[in-house]
Amino acid sequence: MDAGLTEDLGLLLRALRGRAGLTQEELAARAGEGLSARTLRRVEHGQTRPYRHTLEALAAALGLGAEDRRALLAAWRALPATLRRQAPEGAETLPLPPTPLIGREREEATVADLLRRDGARLVTLTGPGGVGKTRLALQAAAGLGDAFADGVIFVELAALGDPRLVPATIAREVGLQEFGERPLPESLIAFLREKRTLLVLDSFEHVAAAAPLVTDLLGACRRLAVLATSRARLDLREEREVVIAPLALPDPANLSHPMSVAESPAVALFTQRARRRGGLCAHRRQRARGSRDLPAPGWAAARPRVGRPVDQAPAAGGPAGAPGATPALVDEPGPGSAAAPADVAQHDRLELRSARCR
Question: In this structure, are 107 and 198 located in the same domain?
Fold first, then answer.
């Protein structure tokens, strides 16, 4: 082994990769074994312990001689038993969204700028249920992997209900499996303290009382950042809020211009959801020959049903405006706005959960 190479696995692997002149992406591709550049990055930063066969594949891809192979194996054996083992690739990635993101380019750029350029450490996407906060958070987080060397971790909170379960849920997602005798929040802080990680905390409104944990994590882990989605602010210091309003409907003055209507983000989203629900509506099929992607002239009459602003939608099946209806949590939109129907939004959430299990 060359003089100066470390016995720490992550540093040793990084040095060997540098000597070979390979990027993480190139080495992962050469190694095969289903290894991703993201998992390799986690190995190099001491966050995960690869399987033995993955280590051997890396050695082969690097073209190591016998001495370097022995050094690599010795460093691997020296890793602490409490370090997370390499998880299946599906568990190492963000959930795969079921559909493309539509009409949120400005908001995506805002989130990316806050976390990457402005150094914000707590960004909260707020808005009514079904408006697309989770989908936007996933899109933004997927583009920030290079800014967070120790990973982008998605933590779903909607099903918890009990804020006391939040520390254990985050610990499971980041790979902390052995806590010792310390309280779990303290172990979580110790585990994340030196890691450059982005936690995506989804549906935080269900566990709002756990906000002090976020304060503790950010206070003790200076390289950690949090991207949260919630129907309301977390009301924490240094929080940067990005309000996600419903997509704007077409300008009523331009409803007679088919292309203008079809290019509206709200109409594009509705079309996408309609196709997923079983195809185009009957009136669109009848007019397909005349205009392939054109809403019917009756769109103006249908708009109160199809494109009603999400903050006017009934809650739990009740009539709009009735007691228990979802209150408006965003500024009053322009001429009209639309968000995903509640049942479709729930269907997407279930698909995201399924994607995480594959």
Answer: yes
pLDDT at site 123: 97
User: Are 183 and 53 members of one domain?
Assistant: no
Q: pTM surpassing 0.85?
A: no
Q: Which residues of 132-147 are buried (b: 16+ CB within 10 A; e: fewer)?
A: bbbbbbbbbbbebbee
Cα 66 to Cα 59, 70, 288, 340, distances in angstroms: 10, 6, 67, 58
3-state secondary structure of 199: strand
Q: Which domain holds residue 274?
A: 247-338
Rounded distance, CA 342 to CA 132, Å? 11
Rounded CA separation 176/187 (Å): 8
Residue 237 in tokens: 């210091």
Burial class (CB in 10 A: 0-12, 13-18, 19+), 31: buried
How many angstroms separate the CA atoms of 340 and 307, rounded? 9
What pLDDT does residue 280 have? 46
Consecutive sets of 10 residues in the chain, 358 residues long: mean pLDDT of each?
57 90 90 76 79 85 92 82 44 63 87 92 94 91 86 89 89 75 88 92 95 96 95 93 85 66 65 60 52 47 46 40 36 41 51 49
Is the four-CA dihedral 184, 179, 166, 150 of positive or negative sign? positive
N- to C-terminal Cα separation, the chain: 40
Rounded Cα–Cα distance for residues 226 and 124 (Å)? 8
Is-contact 200 139, C-beta < 8 A?
Answer: no
Domain count, the chain: 3
Contact 160, 169 (CB under 8 A): yes
DSSP class of residue 85?
Answer: B
